[in-house]
Every structure is written in C-alpha cells, then in structure tokens.
Amino acid sequence: MLRSHTCGELRLTDAGKSVTLSGWVQISRDFGGLTFVDLRDRYGITQLAFNMSTNAELCEQARKLNREFVVQVSGTVRERENKNPKIPTGDIEIIVDSIKVLNSAKTPPFTIEDETDGGDDLRMKYRYLDIRRAPVRESLLLRHRLAQETRKYLSDQEFIEVETPVLIKSTPEGARDFVVPSRMNAGQFYALPQSPQTFKQLLMVAGMDRYFQIVKCFRDEDLRADRQPEFTQIDCEMSFVERADILDMFEGLVRHLFKTVKGIDIGKLPHMSYADAAKYYGNDKPDTRFEMKFVELNDVVKNKGFKVFDDAELVVGICAKGAASYTRKQLDELTEFVKRPQLGATGLVYARYNADGTIKSSVDKFYNEDELKKWVAAFGAEPGDLMLILAGGIDKTRKALSELRLEMGTQLGLRDKNKFSCLWVIDFPLLEYNEEHNRWFAMHHPFTAPWPEDIAKLSNPAQFGEIRANAYDMVINGVEVGGGSIRIYDKALQAKMFETLGFTAEEAQAQFGFLMNAFEFGAPPHGGIAFGFDRLCSLFGGAESIRDFIAFPKNNSGRDVMIDSPSVIDDKQLKELNIKTTV
Amino acid sequence: MLRSHTCGELRLTDAGKSVTLSGWVQISRDFGGLTFVDLRDRYGITQLAFNMSTNAELCEQARKLNREFVVQVSGTVRERENKNPKIPTGDIEIIVDSIKVLNSAKTPPFTIEDETDGGDDLRMKYRYLDIRRAPVRESLLLRHRLAQETRKYLSDQEFIEVETPVLIKSTPEGARDFVVPSRMNAGQFYALPQSPQTFKQLLMVAGMDRYFQIVKCFRDEDLRADRQPEFTQIDCEMSFVERADILDMFEGLVRHLFKTVKGIDIGKLPHMSYADAAKYYGNDKPDTRFEMKFVELNDVVKNKGFKVFDDAELVVGICAKGAASYTRKQLDELTEFVKRPQLGATGLVYARYNADGTIKSSVDKFYNEDELKKWVAAFGAEPGDLMLILAGGIDKTRKALSELRLEMGTQLGLRDKNKFSCLWVIDFPLLEYNEEHNRWFAMHHPFTAPWPEDIAKLSNPAQFGEIRANAYDMVINGVEVGGGSIRIYDKALQAKMFETLGFTAEEAQAQFGFLMNAFEFGAPPHGGIAFGFDRLCSLFGGAESIRDFIAFPKNNSGRDVMIDSPSVIDDKQLKELNIKTTV
Questions:
Q1: Does B491 touch chain A (CB under 8 A)?
Q2: Is the CB of residue A447 less than 8 Å from the CB of residue A487?
Q3: How many CB atoms lie within 10 A of CB A438?
Q4: pLDDT tens-digit map of A272-305
Q5: B521 with A108: Cβ contact below 8 A
Q6: Going from the N-terminus, what domains does chain A have, and what CATH number goes with each?
Q7: Could you report the per-residue pLDDT of B323-350, keeping only the tens digit for each?
Q8: Fewest CB atoms within 10 Å of the CB: A253, B355, B512, B534?
Q9: Can you give the pTM of this predicted structure?
C-alpha cells in the first residue's frame, strides 16, 4: 500500500509514530514560517505541517502543491497546538519528512467543498470530482450501508438473492420498455425489465420460497424531475403467506434499517385504508409526520346561502395550528397556491380563530359568529388556529387540499427531514378506469389478487370499481417507498384478470402464457413487495432529490453528460443488428 | 403463514407437537392400510402418514394427491417406525388431521428428482420446474451464499458497493456491444456494459478508494457452449495500491469463500509467471491439481536421425505416472486425440518405462535403450510410467500437449472436482499481435499499466511484444476465475496506449476522452480485478457447466425458451424509437 494509515485514522494515541499517508490536497495554508496542508481521502482529513526553519526545501515543495494534487507523504505524528475539535483527527498533525507527488491536477471546475460553487450541469459533467465532495460521498456510503443491511436482514430471514435476467421480453402492458435488437435473432428484440415481477413469481412456482434481489429496472418514460430511466429496486417475494405475514416481514426490514443505520426505533407501523387516506389526507401516500387531517364540512356549511359551498360535491378543510396570525398577504399567497393550474381550485376560504376568541372568516357575509363556532367545533380548533377550506368535486378538491396541507406543513415547520413517520396503506382498489384509453387498468399490476370475497365482481363490469385488491404500500413521510400485493396463483383467475384488462385470450397467452402455464404445475400462494431503493436512500439521507444517491445519474433527457451517452453508432454495427435508423 | 414449520425443520424433539406444513407432493406411497406422502419444500422433505383404519376419508383424500400438488396439512409430529437416516427429518413423520389442496398440478413434463428424465431443452422451457430439483436449487443457494460472503468480506475491508450505470456508451474496442435505441435522443443508442471498467476507474479518481460490485455484464458474441450473453462479475478496484496489495486482498477473498462456504483452507497462493505457465503447462491457466509438467527435450532427442524431432522447433513431453500399462488401443486413442483438427499434432511419440525396468518406445528404430534412459532421466520417470511426446512449432505443440496433459489428468483420476488448486499467473505480455486485424491488441484491455521499466518500449514497435503488463489472473483448477491489473492513471501514457492500439487521437478522445480528461484532475494510482461469478459458482459447486448456477439462462442462440425471447415488437414501438428492421 502507498500508505500506512488513511487520512481519517490517526489519533493522539498515535503520537510519535512514523506514518505514510496518501491523498488529495484539500488546501494549503501558508503562515510565513509554517505551512499547513490538509490531506484528504475517503476516510477523512489529516493536517500536514511543514516548518520553513527546520526544512526549507520541503516547505517550499509543500507550498507548490495545488488543490487536488495527489501526494504521498511520510512523517511523524505529533500533537497539534491548535486542536480542531470538528474532525476526528483534529488532535494531531504530521510533521512531514518527505513528499512525493503521485499525480498533479488541473484546477477543478468547481470547489471540492460541502457547499460547492458548481451548478448541476457542471457537477454532472465532472461527476468524478463531484463525488469527492463529502455530501455526495456520504450519500453513496449511506446507500452501501442500506444495501448491505437489507441483504443481511433478508438473508437472516432465509431469503435467497437470485439474479433474474436483464435481457427479457417486451410487453405492451405498463410503461414503455427499452429494447435491445438481437443480432442472432434478426428482426427480434429483447426488452430490459421494468421489474422482475414475472420472474420472481416463477421463482415461487419453482419452490424458492423466499426471494430477494437488489436489482436495476428500466422504464423508457418521459423523465420528470427526479425520475431516472434506470433505477434500483429491493425486490422481494414469499410463498405460503397472507398479507399480515408480508407486512410483518417488511416492516421488520424497514425497522432494521432505521435501527442499524439511523439508530431510530420506528415501532409498530399503523395501517390505513386507501379510503381513509383519501378521506383524511387527500392522497394515497399521506405525510403523517403531522396531523392536520381533513375535516369534511358538508353538514356544517351547506344551505347558508353561500353558493360555492352549496353547489360543491365536497366542502373540506384543514386546521393549521397556530396560524391565525397569518397576514392577508400570506393568505393571498395560499389562495394563489391552490389556484395554480396543477391544483385548479377556484378559491380558498379561511377562518381565523383569533387568540382573543373572535372568529374572522373570508365569508363573513354568509356565516355569522354562531355558524363559525360550528366550524370551530368541527375542526376541534383552538384560539390561534387557522381554518382553510376548499370546495368542489371530491377528487379534485381532495387533491388540492392535500397539496395545501403539505404546503402548510412545510410553512409551519412540521416536515422535519430528521423525523420519520411510516405506515402501511392497504385495501387499494384493484382496477381504475382510464378515460383516455377507455378501459380498466390494474391499479398495481395485472398479477395482484383481488380480495377473495370480491372475485365474483369480476364478472360484472358495473362492479369493477368496487373490487378491492390485496395490495399494500409502505409510505414514509409522504413518500411511497414500497408497494406490493398478494398475487394471483390460479391460471383461470389470472386469465379472467387479463380479460378484464381488455386482452384477448391470444394476446394474454402470447405475452404471459409462460406464467399462466406455470400456474398449472403447482403454484403456491405467494405475495411480495418492491421498494424503490434510490428513493429509500434519499429519504434516509434527508434529501429531496435521488440524484446524489446514484453514482452516475442521467439528466432529464436521459443523457449521461459525463460520458456523452447515448451516442450514434456506426453503420456496420447497425447492419449486423438488422436495423436502420429513420432520422 | 400457511405453515408453522418448514418441511426441513422437524426433529425427534418435536414429537407430540401440533404442526401445519405446506409444500409440494413429492411422492405418495400406498401400502394398503397405510399411505405415506413425502411433502417437499425448499428446506427439505417431511413424511406425512395416513391410516386407513383410523381415518379412511382422509386417507382416501391423500391417495388422490398427485405429484407436485401444493397442499397444506395439519397434524401431530410422531417418531417414525422406519427411520430414514438419509434426511434430517428422517426420525419423524406427521400424523395428519386435515389436508387442504392449495393448488393442483398437471403431471410435470419430467420427473422432479435429482436425476431427472428431462433433456436440456425441456428443462429450460420449464425452468420453474427444473429449479424444484435439489441439484439446481442447491446450485442457486450456493450462489447466494457466495454472493453474501463476498459482500461480507469486501465490506469488512472497507470496500463500498457502488452501482454503475447499465445504459452506457458503445465503444468499438473489445467484444460487440448490445445496444439500446434512445427514444428521446433520436438516432442515438446506449450500450450495455461489457464491464464497468471505466466507471470503476472514475470512482477511483472520485476518491472512493475501494469499490466493488456484483454486477451484470453483457457481450453480444457468438455463443460457445457455456457462454451467456449476460453474465455476472465480482468487480473490484482499489486506490493507492501496488500489485502485491491486490494479490493479497483478493486471494484473501477467495480464501474466505473457500473457508466459509466449503470449509477448506487453500493456504497461501503461489505465483507463476506467464512464461513459466506456457513452458510447463502450455497455457496461461494451468490446472495445478496435478503435476505432470512439460519437459522440453530438444537437447536430449535431436540429431539421432529421427527427422520429425530434428525438424521440430520444440520437442516436449509429459510423464504420466503409472500409465505404462496403457494398451496399444489406449495409446492409439491418445494419438487420435492429439491429431484432431483443433489440436493438429501430426503424431504422438510414446515410451513405456515398464515395471520390469525395460523401456519400449514408438521410435525404437531411432533411439536405443541407452538413449531412452536419457529420456527417463529428463522426465524423472519411474518404472511403470508412460512418457508422451509431441514435436512441432512451439505455440501449437504446447497447446496440443496442454490438452493431452489435461486428458491424461482426467484419465488418471487426477482432476478431482472436490480438490482445489489455486494460483496467480502474473507478468503477462501487455500486447499481442493479431494477424487478422494486422495490429496490436491489449492482452487484457487498454487500461492496463505496463511495467514502468518497459514503458520506453512503447516508442519502438519492434519491442511491443516484449512489454510486460502489470496484470494478473487467478486460476483455479485450470479455470481463469479472475483477472485484473494495475491501471494507467496518467493521461499521456493512456493516450500513448491508445495510439499503440491504432486509435487516432480524435478516436481516443471521442471514445475515452471522459476517462483521460479525468486523469488530469488528480487520479490516484489504482488497480483492480474482476471475477467471473457464474464460473466461480460452478467451480465451487463442482460442476462443468455454469447453466445450473444461473436461474434463467439463455440457450446457445441467445434465446430464453421459457419466455420465448427475443421476440418481434410492434411497429408503433419501432417508430417511437426511430428505427426500422431490415429483415
């Protein structure tokens, strides 16, 4: 090794030792007679000391070291005069005897510091420099720890990691596939997996009993912010289970990760039905770090002459604790917030329950103090609280209020990234109608089992919307980090499901025949879950974006700007693949 | 859970317990008054007992269970009368109270037994049934253990598992890439990685210090037996190292795997130079489970009037211990073996050193007993040994003798799959000349560092063949399981290397500019290795083929016959991707 120790290792107890360190020059500070160099590696920073009066030549050499030079130094550990309590090596420094420059460095295009001056594009282009910065490095280390602890927990629970193929078959159901032309099978294509769903189910048919994999998946979708064409799942499946077994097992996994990686005990996870999530939080991934539940007000506010409320399918509001002091300007901003096209509310009604006990609303014309007291009662409001109310069609109003609730949570400091609130959302609908395509789609995917008592409804299209899925999502801090279901394991039911989704029998057989046929040879009851690993990492890291938890992410056009990919390929290669480009 | 215990779990100490098991019917045996059913899951087999006289109805039910039915049974554990010492649960059986058929099964197309009657094609088509067989299941379990132990060892050594991208950039150097048309970047393509080589080097530039990944790689090559278009590597890289550090670290990994997974201590690994491997074993991956080293005989056999030897560039042989008793027929077969077109020897000379001390050769006409005694001395042969000699051009003769040596090792039972002989082969040539392409190629890859003292020879094409690479292969039982090198980390040297390989400066910049540019920003000395994980698994499993260590392998045409992939995709999809097929 070109070092005896790392730059994060030496302590006061090492004083007097002869050591060799290698690393990058973080900074060189020249104090006339003394020169200090901070030497950095993955493990930390160690101060190197050079004294002009005892070794002028070496000191001159040190002064010539630019930022990011790679050097190897030998010297003796000694106690520092000015200790730095902020770093673990802050008690010592190295009196250097010799320096060897292992590699020089051009001046980096941005500073290698926690808060860099580099913009996103520059950071991505020089990602190898960006990763030298502590926040990105720590994000990747966190990801490593989460992956290893995930494997440890699941292995201890008898799960077997099985690698499923990457070159598989394209299926039109679901998102768009990336495809790979096959040279040896002219005119044919592989597809990259959107998930190993069918393979993990086949592994259950194969008797593997408990499977997992931390696995790359691929979706050729138009990229929204923070969505990557390739992403990573913790993919799991178990046989001979019922829903409760899966929920236990995988909240166990998440509990293990929080305990070992963050030292937090998340306790037993609550269950919330999809219907309750919609009713009280307006979406299926409620941020339960804070209360501020929806209160439905139809019974309280209607028939008082206020047409907006009278005509609304739903009048629903939230009570923002302690926000009665919001100014008119702040309230106007909230109104603008809900009126944005994405939310599309027509307006926002508010009522301040002032600290002095008076109540002041934006609709005083229609509601007197007695009426407003009924509002207070409905919300359970206390003096100092602010009531915010929306009205309109059920789905749209809930969606808008959900966003407003999150905004208020943010404004009131209730969404602490170091606090974690986890729950299961259960009892999703099996099917949802898509107006655009004019047919029913599986809310999770076509392999999800309906509740046994709802199976009969699959014979009656009028009841499709009522069928409950044996599906579940794990939600943490308003983010869906994992989702899964008990699966269909009966060929006839699976065929019925495909029929419900508009497949002809031939189409179903051509695309998923291998799975349905497998069900005829002794398929066990089974179910599973998949966690979005990139998102889980960013959540653990307290970050909004998943980018810094991926070593080499792509931009919103699906490009890797560092290696400049995708790129054109030569005609010979295209010819061998029996394809032509049409641009 | 649909079970209280697995089918591999119950012991005599559990007698009297009420249990519920779920699994597959392995076999049902009807003995008149008694019916026994073997119930199987991943964990083992448990015998279920049904008694016609105590519960006729249940017994009748049991008799109707066909092979591979999935059933759940409840009952009581009791000691067996006829114990089966071959299985861990052999002391007990379950007196069944109730049966529930969870799923029926058609008769499988082949028997679910260790030795199946299914051929390869059928097994691949119904891979989910094939995996139910113990040998395949155990192979996948072994793979899981090897993966987890690899991660444990490397994590303990401060290696960080970093996921590198799968959608990267096509490069013409090396094997053929699989490519992926980009919908969002019309006319452009991603490529699937043949290895994460450049990314792991960038991670070293990024200061990650120690990286590993168990990662899928892809090569669109014409498939030979036992080569898969997608395969898995244990990919590793370290900074601030010299060769000895890497050899220590990774023989440590392999030692750990043998110790923890097989309970074998492989000790300290010997090093063998590429030149010695060629001279003594005729190839760069010698099977050192047995000696039978090459003995060069030019000095001994020439100028005795035997033209074949006199004209040969090299006369070289092996001494097969105890094989003097080989019959004429056996010797003729060996002659045929070396004369096959793949080996192309013109003939085989042998000399039997008989047990009675006499020596009898196939060239007695040219060599009398005194001359043959010189052969005996050269080989260090003993009475009872057989000397086998080939002659011709150096490379071809060594290659043929290498195959003959392996064949003799096999015939003499010297290649025990439960014995493991590991070594490092080092000091490979940096470059090898390719007659077909009329240029030099990197023997490992273009990123391998030459020995510092040989760098000057890169300026003189006449010396290209003499340049030694700082590269190393790990060889186990004649299989190259891993290979790597110390890397170039200097931009100028890397550019020189590309020039040597026939790249123009523009081509080098277009394809590998991102890496060479990275070297300008403070690249540390680094090196690494990659192990072929599929092959390592099969070696640990004592198998010739890697197929059963891959859950869902492809056939020699690159097809997955189970899911029937690759397949045609629809025109709409092609249009979105801006490509057309030309078939």
A1: no
A2: yes
A3: 8
A4: 999 999 999 999 999 999 999 999 999 999 999 9
A5: yes
A6: 12-103 (2.40.50.140), 137-272+422-550 (3.30.930.10), 290-411 (3.30.1360.30)
A7: 999 999 999 999 999 999 999 999 999 9
A8: B355
A9: 0.95
